Structures are given as structure tokens and as C-alpha cells.
């Protein structure tokens, strides 16, 4: 091949490259330029740590209605499933026998009062006769003692009448508390007995209502350790959110009433009780709910968006930040929990660090980058109107 022909093959690709550059604006792409990334500057702020715990609703007060005397149910005086007031009659037992006992006790009291009146008059006459020595002192003492014994008989008869009236009152069974009553386990004509195992009905007070949840004892130890170190502040006064079975949030928030003082050895957890106002009776005993309980407040917490944290195959987490020289640096970080769409940082990052959240696919460690704060509006100059094409001459 001749030298002239060989030079043509070398010049032709160069000419084609220059022509392509001219078509794209006359500038060749730069190699090794700065990358464009979006960062979030970390700022410390109080962070409320919450824990979602499973639990069940229980009545604020629960009373099982049982008979205190035996008898036949003469009438049921309430509607099943209705609201009842404390002291409202629920059942009426056949009280003929108890009424007869009360009348007998009343008659015994009247007899005792009559005997006491006769003994009182005899004692007064005896005290006058002993002065004139018509009767002996011993006879007078016997008369005075008989009067006192008759008065004691009156007291005993009155107590027997009170007991009979109490028994008679038990024949009319009333509501011990206010609340919603369930179905009746007996009907009219049924025989009930005092101290029977099966309740006649159950009353639940639904407003307010309790939510009983359980929490791991290991979490309790961690919270106490963080509070002792000053990293966490107590949050027992924070309201408790209630999440229903369908995922919706209950309209009323609760308050933490108390926590158990012992740990269940079978589960390693301890109980918490939340009190919630329930005026619409949406929450019912036995309903499964979730309670979002505040466990503490981190006064200087750092939150990082989830897209700024990477996790490798071993589970280690890291973040890319822009250092003081405008270059990419990799930090090994430790995160504990998610709060919304962010991670709570435990170590590895500090306030003021610029964590890269966008543009991560185009950068690497040590690469210079141009950082833009996420959410900041970058002012772009308006494009100049295109010049009119020159008239061909």
C-alpha cells in the first residue's frame, strides 16, 4: 500500500469525528468532570420514639350478675344488649317465701317490744316497792335484769327483721354497675341458686375502655439504659394512638395508665394498660387493636432519608456524604429504627454532614461532586430567544 493511500485512511476518521462535533454544537464532552448530586444536611431535632404494640380491648369495669338467693325467675326486667344504669332492676325472683320470713321477723319484733314494755313497767314498780321494803332487794334486782333482757330481745328481733328484709331485697336482682349488658343465660321460670358458677348476665362499661398490650422486657432494659445515659427522655405523658383492625386510626387517643411490675416468664414480656375514651362504643371487649405507645424522646436525634442509607449482603449499613473538599466519602453508620420514611442514626454521622440521597449511581468514593440541597429551588436563567435566521443573499 502506498504512503499516500495509508494517510487517507488515517485522515478520514478524524474528519468524521470533527464533523460530528460540529453538528452537536462544536464542543467535545469533558472527561472526568464533577458529578451532580442532591444532599440532605443533617440537623439535630427532638425525635419521639414510638413502639407499635398489639393488644386487645377490655371493659373498664366488668360485672357478672349472679343471684345471692335461690328461687324461680319470675320476670326479666331488661333488654339484652341495652345500656343499664347502676341499681336498675334486672331480674325478679319469686319472693313469696322470703316475704313470709320478713313478716314473721316483723311479728317477732313486735312481740319482743311488747315484752320489753311489760318488763320496763315491772321494773319501775319494783324500784318503788323496794324502797318501802315490800319486796326484797333480790326481787328488785331480778326485775331490773328482766327489763334489760327484754330490751336485748328487741334488738335481736330487729336484727332478724333486717336480715329478712335483706334476703327479700336480694330477690330483686339489680345492676351492680352502669354499662352495656349482654345476653341473659336464663329465662322466665328458670331455677337459680345462690353462688352458682354461671352468671345470669355480664355487664361491661365501655366508656372509657382499656387496651391491654404487652412489651418485651429487653426493650424496657434498653430504654432504661438510654435514659440513664441521658440519651433519652421519658415520654409517659404522650398520647397513645389506637389503630383498628382495618388499619384506620381511632378518633380518640388514649393515655398510659400503668405497667405491670412483673414479667411473664412464658413470654418474657410485661403488660401495659391504656385508657381510651369510647363514647361511640366503637371499641368492644375482645377486639384486636394496635397501640402506638411513645417510649421516649431523643432530644438531639438525627434522621436520614431511607434512600441515603445502603445495606450490603452482610447487613452493614453505610452512607455517602460530601466532605469539606467537595468529594464523595463513604461512612459506616449504625441505624436503629425507622420513623416515617427516615432512619434514626445511632452512630457514624453527625450534625452538619451532607448525606447524598440522589445521584448515587453516577458517583464513587473520592469523586468531586457539585451538591444541591434537597428541596432547594435552583434558579435557572431564562433561555434567550433564538435569533432570526439571516436572510440569504
Plain-language structure description:
The chain is an alpha+beta fold. Strands 1, 14, 15, 16, 17, 18, 19 and 20 form an eight-stranded mixed beta sheet that branches. Strands 2, 4, 7, 9, 10, 11, 12 and 13 form an eight-stranded antiparallel beta sheet that branches. The chain is elongated and about 140 Å long. It starts with a helix and ends in a 20-residue tail after the last strand.
Short description:
This protein is an alpha+beta fold and 393 residues long. It has 4 helices and 20 strands. Strands 1, 14, 15, 16, 17, 18, 19 and 20 form an 8-stranded mixed β-sheet that branches. Strands 2, 4, 7, 9, 10, 11, 12 and 13 form an 8-stranded antiparallel β-sheet that branches. Strands 6-5-3-8 form a 4-stranded antiparallel β-sheet.
Keywords:
disordered N terminus, 393 residues, alpha+beta
Amino acid at each position: 500500500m502506498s504512503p499516500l493511500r495509508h494517510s487517507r485512511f488515517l485522515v478520514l476518521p478524524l474528519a468524521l469525528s470533527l464533523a460530528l462535533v460540529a453538528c452537536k454544537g462544536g464542543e467535545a464532552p469533558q472527561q472526568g468532570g464533577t458529578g451532580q448530586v442532591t444532599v440532605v444536611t443533617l440537623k439535630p431535632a427532638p425525635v419521639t420514639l414510638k413502639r407499635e404494640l398489639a393488644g386487645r380491648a377490655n371493659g373498664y369495669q366488668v360485672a357478672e350478675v349472679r343471684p345471692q338467693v335461690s328461687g324461680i325467675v319470675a320476670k326479666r326486667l331488661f333488654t339484652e344488649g341495652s345500656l343499664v344504669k347502676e341499681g336498675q332492676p334486672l331480674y325478679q325472683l319469686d319472693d313469696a317465701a322470703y316475704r313470709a320470713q320478713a313478716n314473721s321477723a316483723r311479728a317477732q319484733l313486735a312481740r319482743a317490744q311488747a315484752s320489753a314494755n311489760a318488763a320496763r313497767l315491772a321494773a319501775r314498780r319494783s324500784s318503788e316497792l323496794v324502797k318501802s321494803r315490800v319486796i326484797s332487794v333480790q326481787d328488785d334486782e331480778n326485775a331490773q335484769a328482766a327489763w334489760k333482757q327484754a330490751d336485748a330481745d328487741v334488738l335481736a328481733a330487729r336484727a332478724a327483721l333486717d336480715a329478712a328484709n335483706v334476703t327479700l331485697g336480694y330477690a330483686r336482682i339489680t345492676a351492680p354497675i352502669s354499662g352495656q349488658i349482654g345476653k341473659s343465660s336464663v329465662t322466665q321460670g328458670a331455677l337459680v341458686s345462690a353462688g352458682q358458677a354461671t352468671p345470669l348476665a355480664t355487664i361491661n362499661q365501655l366508656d372509657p375502655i382499656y387496651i391491654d398490650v404487652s412489651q418485651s422486657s429487653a426493650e424496657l432494659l434498653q430504654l432504661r439504659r438510654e435514659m440513664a445515659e441521658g440519651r433519652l427522655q421519658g415520654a409517659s405523658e404522650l398520647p397513645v394512638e389506637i389503630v383498628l383492625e382495618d388499619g384506620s386510626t381511632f378518633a380518640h387517643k388514649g393515655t398510659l395508665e400503668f405497667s405491670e411490675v412483673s414479667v411473664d416468664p412464658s413470654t418474657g414480656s410485661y403488660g401495659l394498660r391504656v385508657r381510651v375514651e369510647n363514647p361511640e362504643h366503637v371499641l368492644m371487649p375482645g377486639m384486636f387493636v394496635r397501640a402506638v405507645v411513645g417510649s421516649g424522646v431523643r432530644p438531639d436525634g438525627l434522621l436520614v432519608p431511607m434512600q441515603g442509607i445502603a445495606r450490603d449482603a452482610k447487613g452493614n449499613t453505610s452512607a455517602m456524604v460530601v466532605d469539606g473538599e467537595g468529594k464523595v466519602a463513604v461512612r459506616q453508620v449504625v441505624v436503629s429504627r425507622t420513623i416515617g420514611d427516615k432512619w434514626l442514626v445511632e452512630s457514624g454521622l453527625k450534625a452538619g454532614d451532607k448525606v447524598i440521597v440522589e445521584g448515587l449511581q453516577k458517583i464513587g468514593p473520592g469523586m468531586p461532586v457539585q451538591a444541591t440541597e434537597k428541596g432547594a429551588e435552583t434558579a435557572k436563567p431564562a433561555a434567550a430567544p433564538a435569533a432570526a435566521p439571516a436572510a440569504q443573499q
